[in-house]
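Example 9 (inverse folding). The structure is encoded as follows.
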């Protein structure tokens, strides 16, 4: 089973995402609550996708994504889809996320269907 990393600071949101993922067979899940710890674990692990809240308390999710994307481009870690999770709905934030290497965008709160379909799309049908 493909391992996923969720970087989300709000436990209630994280539990909701993890519950939806488990329901659809994603069993290998890691959860980090800060941008720094998420970045550190992402650099040590192998993931099929990384879901990143853009509004983290210590390090903006955009910066986490940019750092990871830079490591991917330099071949330090495998290229994997980065999925932005955010309550922000403005087009400029979305465009910035895409420019920084995010593969997809999920607006919070999201439906189970949106989460699973987005992951299947960016990871390829599984």
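The amino acid assigned to each position is listed next.
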């Amino acid at each position: 089973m493909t391992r996923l990393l969720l970087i989300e600071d709000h436990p209630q949101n994280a539990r909701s995402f993890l519950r939806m993922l488990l329901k659809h067979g994603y069993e290998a899940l890691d959860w980090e609550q800060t941008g720094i710890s998420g970045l550190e674990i992402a650099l040590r692990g192998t993931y099929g996708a990384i879901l990143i809240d853009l509004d983290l308390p210590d390090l903006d999710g955009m910066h986490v994504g940019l750092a990871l994307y830079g490591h991917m481009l330099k071949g330090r870690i495998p290229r994997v889809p980065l999925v932005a999770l955010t309550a922000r709905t403005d087009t400029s934030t979305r465009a910035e996320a895409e420019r920084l290497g995010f593969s997809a965008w999920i607006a919070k709160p999201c439906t189970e269907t949106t989460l699973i379909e987005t992951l299947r799309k960016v990871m390829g049908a599984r």
